[in-house]
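Progress against Task 2.4 (sequence-to-structure conversion) is shown through the following example record, which the project officer requested during the mid-term review.
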Amino acid sequence: MVAAQFFDGHSSRAHAVLLAVHDGQAVLHDADGLELRRAPLASLRVSERIRRGPRLVTFADGAYCEIFDQAAFDALLAATGHQEGWVSRAQNSWRLVGLSILGLVLFVVVSYFYLLPWTAGLVARAIPARLEAQLGEASLASLDRVVKPSTLPEADRQAIRDNFAALRRPADPGHDYRILFRHGGGIGANALALPGGTIVVTDELVKLLGTGTAMTGVLAHEAGHVTRRHGLQQVFQASAVGALTAYLFGDVSTLLATVPTAILAMRYSRDHERAADAFAVEVLRENRLPPSALADALQQLEASHGARRKRDADDDAEAGFFSTHPHTRERIEAIRNAP
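Structure tokens generated for the chain above:
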């Protein structure tokens, strides 16, 4: 028998009782051994075990017993063949709790590095071309608040546009490419691929690379980001909840509000940079242009920004081209050694 406190469900008064099990039934006795009630075990609800606090045995009519002697009650339950659920066992096992925490950490890590990028890519590819173009226009409007109109000669601009238009590239019906020019100022020598196919080139980048093959290689690289929607994917990874909401419910207001700012501050992942470089190398080869032109452009950019950092100790790789194109040395070697 196990000592318990019985509450009949009609008053708050507690009755001291003894709980026993006979012939598949729970039986309550008072202190004098008088039977108070009995009920089939199958009709009872037994609360989960916790480290502190009583166990509850509830009858079908709402009456219940509170039992504080955990060890005695565990022995009584074991004699009846009762087994605790796995949740209850986990709650009372430090080993299982530790394993659960470890599993949660692993799930978060796997989700961040694998599940989130995969989901962001899925959402990015599902965005309609019309909406992507709308996001691109919003991004351009935000960019124009921090840059100035281009001062490049029209002949230089047209030469760059013509060279890009002449490239034979993989079919990309979802994007309407256009090359725009801006005086970069604080963002320096840079090229930005916006959603929808707009590529913004700064005057500083043209002055550094010229209008020839090196510039064409950079534009092919940016086209690789556009074709594979890397920009949208990176933004969606940074604002996963808003992106998922837009994908499931069609509410694009969150995207319209966050994408422009995120695009301007975006850092492509290593995988995205490699993919865009590979796209550019393929395009350059298809057009009988040397892939080394892109590597040369990156080399010039790295040298330029290295000199700039020496001139200004507060100016680091956060500015200009390197804010969106990290790991430059690694990429240069990969492009030069491409099979």
